[in-house]
Write a structure and sequence with these properties.
Helices cover about 20% and strands about 35% of the residues. By secondary structure, the protein is an alpha/beta fold. It has a 6-stranded mixed sheet. Strands 2-3-9 form a 3-stranded mixed sheet.
Length: about 150
């Protein structure tokens, strides 16, 4: 995967134990206990300047995995559309990477029901060995456990 190597997009390229993103009270933390190389990328306004796009991406080169991250208020549908648009715009450059998506909301205003947009995104990620996860306010994951390839359901 080469799209993230543009110097204006890379926020950090190192072996930090926690790769973190934060915006308006919402936080995403990826614990990195094996201290693998991780590349934090700024997507919104850097990698993609026009149209809908997610906020960030986290790439783990030796796992060949990328996770697109959206930190949002309460609009889950909009967050899903932003991730989907990012995949459309950058998806071809991810090659054979495992592709995950994470959405961190400030709150969810309606009942937690999978919309057709969410189901479509889940299927798209599953085809790339990845998974969609969402949470409110703070999401903490372990790269070793949560960035591995997900077997598609048959």
């Amino acid at each position: 995967m080469t799209w993230y190597y543009h110097p204006g997009w890379v926020m950090s390229d190192d072996c930090r134990r926690i790769a973190a993103f934060a915006e308006n009270g919402r936080k995403y933390h990826a614990e990195n206990p094996e201290e693998r190389k991780v590349v934090r990328c700024h997507i919104d306004g850097c990698a993609i300047r026009d149209g809908e796009r997610c906020d960030y991406a986290l790439y783990v080169p030796d796992m060949d995995a990328v996770c697109f991250i959206e930190l949002k208020g309460k609009d889950l549908k909009k967050a899903i559309q932003q991730i989907s648009s990012t995949l459309t715009q950058l998806g071809g450059s991810t090659g054979s990477c495992i592709v995950h998506a994470r959405i961190v909301l400030s709150r969810v205003s309606r009942p937690d029901v999978n919309s057709s947009y969410e189901i479509q995104l889940q299927r798209s990620l599953a085809q790339r060995g990845g998974k969609l996860k969402r949470d409110t306010t703070i999401m903490t994951e372990n790269i070793e456990k949560d960035y591995a390839r997900v077997s598609p359901k048959l």
